[in-house]
Write a structure and sequence with these properties.
The protein is 81% helix and 0% strand. It has helices at 6-31, 36-62, 73-88, 92-115, 122-148. It is elongated and about 45 Å long.
Length: 149
C-alpha cells in the first residue's frame, strides 16, 4: 500500500514554499545588517534553508509528486516588512533578530503540523524531524547572538 498521499505532497509543497520564503528572508536580513557576526548567521541560515529546499524537492519527487516553485505572497509581504523595519528602525539588528526568531518559531510549528500526519513515509518523517531539529537548535543558538548584539 502506498502511504504517500497527495495531501502529504501538498503539505510538503507548503513547507517547501515557506522554506523558499525563509531563505529569501535570511538573505534580506544579511543584506540589511552591518554586524559581521549577525551577517554571517543570516547567510548561514539562508544556505541552510537552500539545502532544506533541495532535500524537500528530492523527497517530493521521489514519490512522484509535483514540486511547486516559488515563494508565497505571505513570505513576500514579510520580507517587505523586514525591509521597512530596517529602514525605520533605530536598532536594525535587533529588529532583524526578532523577526528571525518569530519566523523560526512559526517554522517549527509548521513542521510539527506536517509531522503529525498519520501516513508519512519513514523517509519523509526522518527528513522533516532532522530539519525541525536544526531549526530548534538554531533558536537555542540565537540567544547567544542576542547577547552579542
Amino acid at each position: 500500500m502506498n502511504t504517500y498521499t497527495e495531501h502529504v505532497g501538498e503539505k510538503l509543497n507548503e513547507l517547501l514554499e515557506k522554506t523558499y520564503d525563509a531563505e529569501k528572508g535570511f538573505k534580506t536580513a544579511a543584506d540589511n545588517i552591518e554586524n559581521t557576526v549577525l551577517k554571517s548567521y543570516f547567510e548561514s541560515k539562508a544556505k541552510e534553508r537552500y539545502n532544506f529546499g533541495h532535500d524537500l524537492k528530492e523527497e517530493i519527487k521521489s514519490y512522484n509528486q509535483e514540486v511547486d516553485k516559488g515563494g508565497s505572497l505571505t513570505g513576500t509581504a514579510h520580507r517587505a516588512w523586514m525591509d521597512i523595519k530596517a529602514m525605520l528602525s533605530l536598532d536594525n539588528e535587533e529588529s532583524m533578530l526578532e523577526e528571525s526568531i518569530r519566523g523560526e518559531k512559526t517554522a517549527v510549528e509548521e513542521y510539527k503540523e506536517v509531522l503529525s500526519e498519520n501516513h508519512l513515509p519513514s523517509s519523509t518523517k526522518a527528513l522533516l524531524k532532522t530539519q525541525k531539529n536544526k531549526i530548534e537548535l538554531g533558536l537555542e543558538n540565537i540567544k547567544t547572538l542576542e547577547d552579542i548584539h
